[in-house]
């Protein structure tokens, strides 16, 4: 599906004002330094200002307060907030690329006659949908996706190629599952036996994703041993993330790539977790917590804490401590010299006696 609009139409969608050719045709989006004829870009960061005079982009989204110092050949679309406005445009563009009107069930898909399929859905090649599964209206399920029996998928859900939703799991409205994500694999539960071996503990629960959750590529959300592993509405999980069984994550959290959260930990709302952070099990993480990348969390965390390090502790204390850590070889050398001087003084005093 082709993306083609005039500058005037885009300005209307963004509540902006055209400064230049209202009929300029836009067919693609681009970075400002790579702009070419037919593309639209934006200027939000002042350090990119020089590019506005050299770019070949047809249109540029910029602030209403921007005052050019040199002539500009591109049409300007002036808005209150260029960054958020261009984000809205990218969302619109992405929906166009995803072929909004794509629908129908591929003849190469396997859909159980016992499954319940909503209206206006798209089900691609080699998709498998099990008995008693429910697929809501306007869902798009791309090739090689597997939906296990009794899984429930809400409305307007987008499931990309190779993702898996296991039995009894529930996916809320407007969720996105990126390629290769797995929702509802067994939690890591094994009981040690006297002979040193392990007995697998059945994982009888499920996973519940509330509305507007996004799960990144190759991320895994384990089903609960009993009850539910829950990701609340609006939370975004990045690529290559492991969420353990019976974890509860609050609303509107963001968790960056390669992080892991061990079983039964409860995280509050509006948390921001940096990449490669590890969180131990059975902890309580408060609301509004922020963790720097590579943090290691081994104890409960109060509301609005800002943590860094492993073990993680308060951010500004970590930075002060890190300065001393970097100077540790110098400090040790100075201490050894002082010890040597003290020993020499003690020897001199001893000889005087």
Characterize the quaternary organization of these chains: single chain
CATH superfamily of the largest domain, please? Hexapeptide repeat proteins
For the sheet with most strands, the description reads:
12 strands, mixed
From the spread of the alpha carbons, the general shape counts as: flat
> In the residues, how many domains can be counted?
2
Descriptive notes:
About 15% of the residues lie in helices and about 30% in strands. The chain has about 350 residues and is α/β, with parallel strands linked by helices. The chain folds into two domains: about 5-95, Udp-n-acetylmuramoylalanyl-d-glutamate--2,6- Diaminopimelate Ligase, Chain: A, domain 1, CATH 3.40.1390; about 105-315, Hexapeptide repeat proteins (UDP N-Acetylglucosamine Acyltransferase, domain 1, 3 Solenoid). Strands 8-11-14-17-20-25-28-31-34-37-39-40 form a twelve-stranded mixed beta sheet, covered by helices on one side. The protein has a ten-stranded parallel beta sheet with strand order 9-12-15-18-21-26-29-32-35-38, with no helix packed on it. Strands 10-13-16-19-24-27-30-33-36 form a nine-stranded parallel beta sheet, with no helix packed on it. A hairpin with a 4-residue loop joins strand 39 (about 305-310) and strand 40 (about 315).
Which structural traits does this protein have?
353 residues, alpha/beta, Udp-n-acetylmuramoylalanyl-d-glutamate--2,6- Diaminopimelate Ligase, Chain: A, domain 1, UDP N-Acetylglucosamine Acyltransferase, domain 1, 4 helices, 17% helix, flat
